[in-house]
Amino acid sequence: MTERIEGHGGELALAALRAHGVREMFTLSGGHVFPLYDAAYKTDFPIYDVRHEQSAVFAAEAVAKLQRRPGLAVLTAGPGVTNGISGMTSAFFNASPVLVLGGRAPAFRWGSGSLQEMDHLPLVAPVTKHAETVFSTDDIPRAVGAALHAALTPHRGPAFLDFPLETVFSVADVELPSVTGVDPIAPDPEEVGRAALLIAGAQRPVIIAGSDVYAGDAVAALREAAEALQVPVFTNGMGRGSLPPEHPLAFAKARRAALSGADVVVVVGTPLDFRLSFGDFGDAKVVHIVDAPSQRATHVQPAVAPAGDLRLILSALADHSGDRADHTDWIADLRVAEDAAKARDAAEMAAETDPIRPARIYGELRRVLAPDAITIGDGGDFVSYAGRYLEPAQPGTWLDPGPYGCLGTGMGYAMGARVSHPDRQICVLMGDGAAGFSLMDVESLVRQKLPVVIVVGNNGIWGLEKHPMRAMYGYDVAADLQPELRYDTVVSALGGAGETVAKAADLGPALQRAFDSGVPYLVNVLTDPTDAYPRSSNLA
Question: Which end of the chain has less neighbouring CB within 10 Å, N or C?
Answer without folding.
Answer: N
